[in-house]
Amino acid sequence: MVFELLDGSTGYVLLEKGLPEDDLFRQIWSARALVEKKYHSLVKQTHESYLKLGAKYITTNSYATQPTWYEATFGTEEGRRVMAAAMDEESSAEVLELVGSIGPLGLMCAHAKLSAQLAVESRHEFASGGGGGGGGAEGNKDNNNESDRNNHSNNNHNHSNNNHNNNNHNDENSICILGSLPPLVESHRPDLFWDALEAKGEAFFLDNYKDLAKALLEGGADCLVLETMNCWEEAELALRAIRELMAELAGTRSQQKQDVIVSLEGSLRGKDLKPQPHLAPAWVRKVLEFDLGPTARLRGVGFNCAPPEDILESLEHLSTEGVLAELETRDILVMVYANLHERDIYDEGFEMPSVQSPQRPEARKVTRRGDLIETAALATADEQTTIPCAGYVKFGRKITRDFGVKILGGCCGCGPQGIAAIAQHV
Q1: From CA 119, how far away is CA 339, in angstroms rounded?
Q2: Residue 319 burial (CB < 10 Å; 0-12/13-18/19+)?
């Protein structure tokens, strides 16, 4: 099938590689690996695990660098107690000193930039044959990031006419680093987005998205990806922030337009948390109609972190209403990376007593769906083959064949094994 390989889950792979699942992890999720230098190598190892499988798109570990969690963790006495209990005295003192200097949101941006730097290092080390498990991005590596990003921007979307294969060409220019911009309150909670918008106003979203996007670009991200957007209105605020940022940066960068991908939460939930995939055509049309300005361009539209069946229904509505055909005509890629977990926790919504008090579910208690990850027989061109993650592979085959999905990977619950199955069997 014709598609490009995206990476998979980050947080769960980090846990498998040794990141502690402590109270600090439950507060800031995968950003736990950014707080202490000794875990930076785990981030690089995670990127490398996907690069070895042939991934052409790797995503920065910045999904958890967002203001709600950082304010609660680093801006409150209770949050700082959690941090101090999880870290050694020297590391804790170092972080507290930094927070005292630049504040919780400054730390958030520093970590977002670091996440991009670690991805850049991983790509370079992989392409050089050195592996991605070395030390972290401790110093300022900005000198080469701008020229590197321009090279990748020119090259990283030229693969769509080639069938995916797992030959692992170590060409640095063929690997695109996606700078992740997450929901700023909580994933799968459009109700909390609307609460925060009413309480804090548009400036909260515009300012934080602008700062995060700038940090990711300074760190070396090639393309900005809005991930798991709860609704069109949330995505619009992020796009407005990017447009403002690019206008401010005009004249300081190359003439190459900044690539942007908008990935909606694939169930398109309403305030009642019920899926509404029938809204996919209207929301995607709004994305297409948005004017990013003269220095940025929409390179893709995606659906992520939702059950495959919900994403499939969204794609069916896009196809029926002619939106997929319009995307193809405009050379805008379709990207999909579904959630492989049991859907109950998302249908019910993460427990959050208030916007200021995020409570993450215990990662190891969130179970993956047997119908998606079990090993089973699937037909190939010539024979029946027993493969892992057969249910997800079957889904991948359908959406690349029937709906022209050009970038395929995995979200929560889809680690290297799932990405390997996609690479080998879709």
Answers
A1: 23
A2: middle
- The rounded distance, in Å, linking the Cα atoms of 409 and 425 is 13
Residue range of the domain that includes 293: 4-425
Which of 424, 357, 369 is CA-nearest to residue 397? Answer: 424
* Residue 305 marked ligand-binding: yes
Alpha helices in 168-293 (DSSP H): 190-200, 202-219, 232-249, 280-289
Dump pLDDT digits (tens) for 21-73: 999 999 999 999 999 999 999 999 999 999 999 999 999 999 999 999 999 99
What's the pTM value of the predicted model, to 2 decimals? 0.89
Query: What's the CATH number where 40 sits?
Result: 3.20.20.330
Which residues in 380-399 are b (16+ Cβ under 10 Å) and which e?
eeeeeeebbbbbbbbbbbbb
User: CA 291, 262, 248 angle in degrees (round to 5)?
Assistant: 50
Query: Based on the structure, what is the number of domains in the chain?
Result: 1
Contacts of 396 (CB under 8 A, 6+ apart): 1, 408, 422, 426
